[in-house]
Amino acid sequence: MKLPIYMDNHATTPMDPRVFDVMKPYFTEVFGNAASRNHSFGWEAEEATEKARKQIADLIGATPKEIVFTSGATESNNLALKGISEMYAERGNHIITQVTEHKAVLDTCKRLEKEGVRVTYLPVKQDGLIDLDQLREAITDKTILISIMYANNEIGVVQPMQDIGKIAKEKGVLFHSDAVQAVGKIPVNVMADGIDLLSLTGHKLYGPKGCGALYVRRRNPRVQITAQMDGGGHERGMRSGTLNVPGIVGLGAACEIAKREMAEESKRLSFLRDKLKNKLMTELDEVYINGSMEHRLPHNLNISFAYVEGESLLMGINDIAVSSGSACTSATLEPSYVLKALGAGDDLAHSSIRFGIGRFNTEPEVDYVSNKVIDVVRKLRELSPLYEMAKEGVDLSKVVWAAH
Amino acid sequence: MAYSDKVLDHYKNPRNVGSLDKSSPDVGTGMVGAPECGDVMKLQVKVNPETGVIEDAKFKTFGCGSAIASSSLATEWLKGRTVDQALHIKNTDIVNELSLPPVKIHCSVLAEDAIKAAIGDYKNKRNAAKPEAVAVS
Q1: Is A109 a catalytic residue?
Q2: Which end of chain A is more exposed for a tag (fewer CB within 10 A), N or C?
Q3: Which candidate from A315, A327, A401 shows the least CB-CB separation from B33?
Q4: In 3-state terms, what secondary structure has residue A320?
Q5: Do B3 and A315 meet the contact criterion of CB atoms below 8 Å apart?
Q6: Helix, strand, coil % in chain B, rounded to nearest 5
């Protein structure tokens, strides 16, 4: 077993060597511009991107012409939200999303609000799921778009996509989903789920960084978006810019592998995840799972170790790469807004660790990680005045703290 | 973020972890911070009532590595000082000793607050223990 161990696969995934092998010739030998129509260099490049378009479409139940290549999911989300609100401005100016979205959606909505778009941010229940009745009630005759992520990047909670899709269809509202964490991990089908626009990216499914896609439905209904990048009119006018051929080839290959291996891989990962969870919960007291266990990605575990601060825990397990919702680990010095939205209290957000198990993690690694985490949590609890007080029977919620 | 060697050392081998009897008249206890802010420090001093010298100091901290290191260092510095000398320990001394980056300065502030709170608690107990106070209780 090699150290350090990478177990932060929601942040990014290592590239599958099989993907890299497929990409290699497209950096040097097959370097043509896919938009060059007059010579074989261009044709070869175009052929490669069209193959990838089909591989991506196949993974999500779409058709190749519905795939628009972008630089990644942040761009896809921007293009979807801004492109829709501009295109459908005459029909309405209201967007519905949720508080636990990724910043790429939330900050795009904030920008749109400044431009006069009205945005409803649905709260989530304690399990991280939205309330479908609240969604229904939020829809007005001015609503043009619902944007709800498929699976959350921190707590791995999977939203009821088919139900949301049905509601959107019923009300004649378009439905966009940021599906970066779900595509390639669990079955995603834009037809069955009733999704009209979907964002995905290569580097979350063992493909390259800097390459993503936006699915834009062409039938029932035909969805149109206003381009946000002006130029050569690539991607049927929706996204100008010379195609990143090696990246696109890699994204396609990653999707093909994911489609082929998903069933088996998700079984293996959920076994490892459950092993990790059970070990931690058996060996340690006062451990809390954040978000629904039932509606969850198979490889995600987000767990709070009460009375232990997340950054100090990360420091103790510095040969393991994971993330924490603690304020000290964020650029803003605020604890995770996703965990706060669950209503569990800031103290549990400070104590949270996110494990993202991936294709290349092994069972011995999971065993090593669980043992190490247990050791460090015990050590830090020995150091924790809160743990001492809790053991003495002090109700910490009733203590008046000298906040600073 | 990269931690200084001294922070790492205090984190790996924290000095003077533990608790003193908070009901003892010779022990001063300071508890500062709040769980929802991500750090709570408990710092205790045991003072020789004859000399005013701090004979023992203990801490427990819920917080990041820099908060643990700041309080661990504080207990080291407190031992052997008189109560009044202890009040001269400044957060900037801790920042310098541990090479804390700007985002971690609040950890040193918290440690200074904990020292003041512990000494304050000890002094309150001493005042309360004077004859007139005893008569009241």
Answers
A1: no
A2: N
A3: A401
A4: strand
A5: yes
A6: 50, 20, 30
State the Cα angle at A362 between A360 and A366, rounded to 5°: 120
CATH topology of domain B5-127: Sufe protein. Chain: A (3.90.1010)
- Note whether A352 and A337 are within 8 A (CB): no
Q: Measured on CA atoms in the order A108, A137, A292, A348, is the torsion positive or negative?
A: positive
Can you list the positions of beta strands (E) in A99-157? 118-122, 143-147
Q: Interface of chain B against chain A, CB under 8 Å?
A: 3, 11, 14, 17, 19, 31-42, 60-65, 67-68, 103, 106, 109-110, 113, 117
Q: Say how far apart CA A32 and CA A164 lie, in whole Å.
A: 42
**ipTM at complex level:** 0.90
This prediction has a pTM of 0.94
- Tell whether A308 lies on the interface with B, counting CB pairs under 8 A: yes
What pLDDT score does A401 carry?
Answer: 83
H/E stretch holding A50: helix A40-60
Q: Which residues of A touch B40 (CB under 8 A)?
A: 385-386, 401
Question: What does the domain layout of chain B look like in residue ranges?
Answer: 5-127
Instruction: Say how many C-beta atoms besides its own lie within 10 A of residue A22's C-beta.
Output: 21
Instruction: Identify the DSSP state of A229.
Output: S
DSSP sequence for A334-400: ---HHHHHTTS-HHHHHTEEEEE--TT--HHHHHHHHHHHHHHHHHHHHH-HHHHHHHTT--GGG--
* Chain A neighbors of B17, CB-CB under 8 A: 382-383
Residue A155 pLDDT exceeds 70: yes
Tokens 């990790």 correspond to: A276
Please say whether the beta carbons of A307 and A351 come within 8 A.
Answer: yes
Q: Using the beta-carbon criterion (under 8 Å), do A402 and B42 form an inter-chain contact?
A: no
